[in-house]
Amino acid sequence: MSEPIEISVIMFSSNQPTSGDQPALGMSSKVPVEPNAIRLVARETAEKYTALPIKKQGRVLLVAFANPDDQNAVDVVAQETGLRVRAVEASAEDIRNTIPLAYGAETAPEVLEGLPTNIGWLLIDRGLLQIEQLEEALAIQSRGGGKLGTILVNMGVINRLLLAEVLAEQFKMPFINLREEPPDADIVRRLDAKKARGLKAVPVRWSGDSLVVAITDPTDQDLQDRLNRELKVPLIFCIASELDINWILDRVYRSSYIEESIMGLLYRDPDESAYETFSDTQLILLLALIALIVICLALAPEITLIVINSIFTIIYISISFYRLWLAYRGANTNLTINVTAEDLAALEETDLPVYSILVPLYKEKDVLPEVVRSIDRLNYPKSKLDVKLLLEERDQETIQAAIKLRPPAHFEFVYIPDAPPHTKPKACNYGLVGARGTFTVIYDAEDRPDADQLRMAVAAFRKAPLNVACLQAKLNYYNKDQNILTRWFTLEYSSWFDLILPGLDNTGAPIPLGGTSNHFYTERLRELGAWDPFNVTEDADLGIRMFKHGYRTGMIDSTTYEESNSQVGNWIRQRSRWVKGYMQTWLVHMRHPLTLLRTLGFKQFLSFHFIIGGTPFVFLSNPFYWIITSLWFMRQWSIIDLLFPNVIYYLAMFNLVIGNFVFMYMNLIGAHRRGYYELTRYALISPLYWVLMSIASWKALWQLITRPFYWEKTIHGLHKPKTGTPTATAQPSTAQTS
Fold it and tell me: What is the DSSP letter of 61?
């Protein structure tokens, strides 16, 4: 190895303190120049300011200047390196003569021999990484690709801040801790919020005529070129943590993120937002219809009641037959996108895209550990997971529980501002701002998705037609045997997700999404305006809105298991919210009926009415027919005979006997397809379950009029496993944003 390079300096000549083991002020001394220090400052900077980096001691860089009192030169080196600069004096001639030797030696093999050359060896050199850990990380990288530093972060070996610091050292770039040195908001705003998020870059300060920009990936030359084109000023790049960049962007652009999350869809297309429950035209038509019915009842009450009853009976029987047809199609045909075991095996880990997972949470501190475990069990490279826990700022209990839990590094906390409406879709919209995955999926706090679900979704998207923007996984319950209510609820879900939705999928009809396990192309979701924060069944609404815009939803044969509601009051709160959202969705998309008919086509237009409008219609109308039937058996009032002339009587009798049989039969088939044979006997008494549905639906109608955006919290953690494992109980709340 060649002799070390030295330079004569006068120590601490720029108001720096002296110490006993250093030369006294004004005393000249030869000091060796360390190659690691040279790598921190660009040669152009050294030559321009007649400066030579000598030694790095922790966060302090010793630098020789021809004029150590030149504060501008000191600041430039400090900003470029992200270190505190200790200026010492050396002659200009000595510095100029040493620069070619030092920077020439920087790339000489004999000087670099034994020095760390990549992030793994840099960490080993610092004593922060064991060789066995590096070998494990390299093995993960060889299987799934990805950045070595990100893999080490996901392994828990280092954190993101340390990763940024080591990257800065590795690539001889300045490092900046943005939380300790937050930039001025006006400087940050020189780069558009959306571009800053996408590029993972943020302007932080001026250095003379140059703008210092923090980035996360020093290897991306295309990124640096694009930033030069975007900002159109000389740039100095430094390294910062990705989380710090997101934190700064959230601070600076918080108000615009909130506005986009709440009002984005309303601004794009007011007619597709549930911000107004009834349009002016709908209110006029509703009042006109009520007035017409009142007038007709006054003039011809018997004929009016027969006509109304006839219309209701025909609609009811049409809905029953349509659901039976869908169940038949769903039970006897394959899904339009079938993913085989061979398809999954053919997926190369290196070819898998980044996947964003949004987990809205509110008052979920007790079930939070389970959702973290469930997501961590997913069979997907951790370095390609972008998991965002959406935590409400007003829910400090869950926030503190999340901090205490210390989830793996691919989990990120996103704090949802305390601004109305307090709904799950608003939280999801806010989380979507920073989603960096090619695909995005929603999971709820109590979800347990199949381990291969993300891989299956990737394979399905690659096989699907280009107009498929969303994939819906099937949902079912893991606590089905807890009590009779959970059994009924499981029967309903088995029928809905294993028969009805596959039937809609097979017939090419719009699919109202379930509230979880919807997988999206992220950019198409943003293009559509994401979720409507004013619709309390935002999933069903988004499914219809996608179809209107030419996109389709496919079903995948993967199941996410949830917790079934086991308490009647809790169940009614959840069901009333769902039904209210279906009413909102029907009203929103029926603001322009003729346009909707032309957009959907006649068959899908009917499907929309039978599924979206028909669901609350059936639940709301059932009590009237139960009351009429009961009165007939008890009193046999003659007026009841007048309501059911011959044809209507037989149709109503068909509804009573065959219609009820159809719904019970679908529950039986759904249970059979799931292998839940022990539940079949509970399907025979499911009409009792329909009473609860009607109670919840009338509550939903009342809230639609009085509190349309009110989100009733579903309490989770009420199941009691037979294993004896202690189960936490979530806290009740009046509003849910998760």
Answer: E
Contact 480, 474 (CB under 8 A): no
Return the pLDDT at 219. Answer: 83
* Torsion 19-22-27-33 (CA) sign: negative
Instruction: Give the tokens for residue 266.
Output: 């309303």
Q: 223 with 199: CB under 8 angstroms?
A: yes
Q: How far is residue 10's CA from residue 31's CA, in Å, rounded to a whole number?
A: 10
Number of Cβ within a 10 Å radius of residue 569: 10
Q: Are 52 and 63 in contact (CB under 8 A)?
A: yes
Cis status, amide bond into 421, omega within 30 of 0: yes
Four-residue CA torsion sign, 431, 432, 437, 439:
positive
Round the average pLDDT of the chain to a whole number and report it.
Answer: 85
Over residues 567-586, the pLDDT tens digits come to: 898 899 999 999 999 999 99
CA of residue 171 relative to chain centroid, distance: 33
Q: Is 713 left (phi over 0), alpha (psi -120 to 50) or beta?
A: beta
Residue 693, beta-bridge partner list: none
| Angle made by CA atoms 206, 209, 213, in degrees to the nearest 5 | 40
Amino acid letter, residue 208? G
Identify whether the C-beta of residue 211 lies closer than 8 Å to the C-beta of residue 188.
no
Q: What residues contact 334, with CB distance under 8 A and at least 6 apart?
A: none
Residue 721 CB coordination number (10 Å) = 11
Which secondary-structure segment (H or E) carries 594?
A: helix 593-600
Integer Cα distance of 351 and 341 in angstroms: 17
| Residue 70 burial by Cβ neighbours in a 10 Å radius (0-12, 13-18, 19+) | middle
Across the range 534-545, mean pLDDT stands at 94
Q: Backbone phi, then psi, for 269, in 5-degree steps?
A: -155, 95
In this structure, the number of other CB atoms found within 10 A of the CB of residue 109 comes to 7
| Average pLDDT estimate for 611-620 | 92
Main-chain dihedrals φ then ψ at residue 213, nearest 5 degrees: -120, 125
Bridge partner list, 414: 390
The residue ranges of DSSP E strands in 297-373, in sequence order, are: 355-361
Is the Cα dihedral 334, 339, 340, 341 positive or negative? negative
Three-point CA angle 40, 46, 47, nearest 5°? 150
The neighbour count for residue 5, using CB atoms within 10 Å, is 19
Report yes or no: 458 and 542 within 8 Å, Cβ to Cβ: no
Under 8 Å between Cβ of 468 and 382: no
pTM of the model: 0.78
Question: How many residues can be counted in the chain?
Answer: 738
CB 586 within 8 A of CB 605: no
Token pair 């790095």 is found at 56
Could you write out the three-class secondary structure of 11-34? CCCCCCCCCCCCCCCCCEEEEECC
The maximal CA–CA distance of the chain, rounded, in angstroms, is 118
Helix (H) or strand (E) holding 234: none
Q: So what's the pLDDT on residue 641?
A: 65
